[in-house]
Fold this protein.
Amino acid sequence: MKIKAFLWMLLWCVMSIGAMSLAKFLPGHVNNFTVSGVRYFISMVILLAIQKPKKSSFKTSHLGLMMVRGVVSFFATLCTYYAYRHLPLTLATSIGFTGPLLTAFLGVIFLKEKISPTQIIGFIVCYIGILLATKPFGTQGGGIMWPVIIELIANLLASCSILLAKHLSKSHDSLQILTLSTLMCSVCFLVCLPFVYTPVSGHDLVILIGIAGCATLSSYAYIHALQFERASFVSLFEYLRYPLSFILGWYLFCERFDQQQVIGTLLIMISVYMCVHRKK
């Protein structure tokens, strides 16, 4: 079961970084409400086309939780796109690693999950790697940047969304959770539409469709992974995003890296290996 969860999370990593990388190609006049809203609206169309759902697909005995998860997911996505569009890809990804820690601790508090000693050591090794790779006290500037604060808020909201999905996965399948949550997010966008929407060109629309496709597949992969393992275990594999963002940041956006960042990335990968092969 661990291997299946790992493979689904690997797919999530690739699609998640793909969506965020595409968002950086959008022009500045396309605001983040538009990016988030169009992403969910197109995702809803994709899901309806693939799933061809019946009326029963939209029925749930946990409507309140589905609505809460939809709203939380929408604002988590909004904050995340803001951060990734205003920060270097590698730095934004590294800040995102506060998410697994929040998910793991919230999982212990609310879902009564357990964290093994090996996983705790893996966390420590990983955060040492993050500190080496990102050099937070080095060249990032003197003050705290607003995009950093907003991404931390996004991570907290995303952790809450993950735990809600884990709870809902006990009585709903992955596609149903994703469809209903996407529907709720689309409703949030439609409510805000008259106040925040900005026109997009044909080229921008192609990018938004790419973002929606990657984001839809990544969301499905994460929710499906939760059906195989605990939230505290699954969330650890979010660390695989850093090596990928490391490569794409250098190749697509000419982001530079040094020996210290390479060592930090290796430590992150070692920590993931430790968590995969932990003893029960």
Residues 2-51+59-276 form one domain.
